[in-house]
Amino acid sequence: MTENYYAFIMAGGGGTRLWPVSRQSRPKQMVRLGGNRTLFQLAVDRIAALFPPERTFVVTVADQAEELKKQCPGIPAENFLIEPMPRGTASVVGLAAAALYRRDPQAVMTVLAADHLIANVSYFHELLTHAYLLARDGYLVTLGIRPTFPATGYGYIQRGEPLADYGFTAFHVSRFKEKPDEATARKFIERGDHDWNSGMFVWRVDRIWEEFQKLMPELAEKLERIGSAWGDSQPYEVIQAEWPSIKTETIDYGIMERAERVAVLPAADLGWNDVGSWESIFEVFEADEQGNVALDANHLGLDTTHSLIVADDTDRLIVTLGVSDLIVVDTPDALLVCSRHSAQRVREVVNLLKQKKETQYL
Amino acid sequence: MTENYYAFIMAGGGGTRLWPVSRQSRPKQMVRLGGNRTLFQLAVDRIAALFPPERTFVVTVADQAEELKKQCPGIPAENFLIEPMPRGTASVVGLAAAALYRRDPQAVMTVLAADHLIANVSYFHELLTHAYLLARDGYLVTLGIRPTFPATGYGYIQRGEPLADYGFTAFHVSRFKEKPDEATARKFIERGDHDWNSGMFVWRVDRIWEEFQKLMPELAEKLERIGSAWGDSQPYEVIQAEWPSIKTETIDYGIMERAERVAVLPAADLGWNDVGSWESIFEVFEADEQGNVALDANHLGLDTTHSLIVADDTDRLIVTLGVSDLIVVDTPDALLVCSRHSAQRVREVVNLLKQKKETQYL
After folding, report:
1. pLDDT at B1 over 60
2. Which of A316, A338, A352 shows the shortest C-beta gap to B334?
3. Domains of chain A, with CATH numbers?
4. What is the pTM assigned to this prediction?
């Protein structure tokens, strides 16, 4: 891989759907699932063969920066970009592009998530390499995940004309479609020409910067001011001054949906999982003969099927008897017992705890 | 109530069906359920109006005696009879009768369980008073519980001819029937002339002693030897010498089924509950609008119905989401999650833990 390829890992998210393991003080990317490494560490490990630490950047919030630095001490401290407050992905991606443009105007950057899992790592490396080749030619590349069910929780990308001459499969993007209703999602899958928008992107920094100037000129101007103050250290004061007035916007809506030369690289068997709920764990970990998955749990199951048992920092014996399709998540101060069909509703629990001001559990 | 009426509370049992709250070191009678008092303390409290501490006796095993004495310090230490090892209810009831006969040959005694709950206490007092009157006349009285479902876990008593002249309802016993199969139990309920055998008895000590001598002469002889050694303190050495060779037998089979002048006092609305499983808790405690019962639990239920949440010495937040007919029992070192229809199978868990030699959880 060439030396002007940089990775930006977005690690500022919250994530309430893995409660009670994920908390405000320990968002999803800091969660360990059935191993010793956090999702963030796994995200860094996964790309280490392509991106040495000095070309790996982390975009995060002040609250999380110190802990993330500790988790990946190999990444230089100055590669952690601090977002003063959440203003959507457009602003953080723009900040990353502005910072990198100062450092290397010819750079190609990939934007990745800190809280996703990817099973097929060598295929992922291949995709990032192909994406680099497209980006070098001026394309804004998005990785499209082949849908496995009519998800309503993801945006979709419609493939247009194929991109010839590359020796691998890629397409012009016909259009981006934000989270659809289920009927529409079903139609997309039947048509077979829509992929999930993974939120993973690759582009040349000058190209994305050009699009920021054209499509989000106000934001570009602010980022310009931050960028021109950039030296050996991050211009915290300028960022602090500019950030509060930034309008919250996603990179998808702000840039990708309206930009020129947007390409999609379809990823069919990436084993991509955004760990969006406890239910999604069943796709990531192999179940035993009864269809159960136990993560770090001292579990004894009698007449227990298709259930998930998670212990986080507890070593209690967990006995399940005569249950199926159940999720049990045991933590030192909170226990969740939830049916699988209700896994998406865990965020309602968090919202209710917020309402009740039970802050110790948030 | 007269002054020759004595209560013997049987408090030597184990009880695996309330695991993980009940353990070897904390059998069912030492369990607290939704309050500060143990089942044993509640059993003592319940009869305090009829039986002052000096006429309340406790039959237990060596392991439990100290703890039980601590729980009810009002009962004189010499009123705790220690059974060296379990030999069935016939021997402990016989020991109690032998001990009491030495003290007061005209005494009437009631045999009660330490691990049952009774909701209607004033009615219970009334029944014990009626039973006393029958016992004084030489009847061996058993309290019969009106069946509410075709239970296969209890013995049954068939009512015979009514006992006239008492101003309250009582019957000669036609026969005792040990735990029936479900079809038979159903038939008993249809016939309407069978009650559950509660294991609660009332008799004059000379009368029961007479039956022991007639029906279990070998046991009576051994108990005689223990009784004749009885002085101010319990004759531990004699008990230790005689006890190992005693044949294990129940009072029901050994005496009641074959004795003369046996009467049953039917108890229709006693609110009697032997707390035989977590399921039985639903009969004891009032459920909320969703049909849930939470005992000592910091519980937050969303879309949760007909479920039982028990916390024993833990204060963790327990969240249930999208579940029904579920039992969750949280203790410091073990968690049980169990469907209500599997509640009777909790003892299988205990057996499995025994097999696996996981003694710390027993």
Report:
1. no
2. A316
3. 5-273 (3.90.550.10), 278-361 (no CATH)
4. 0.87
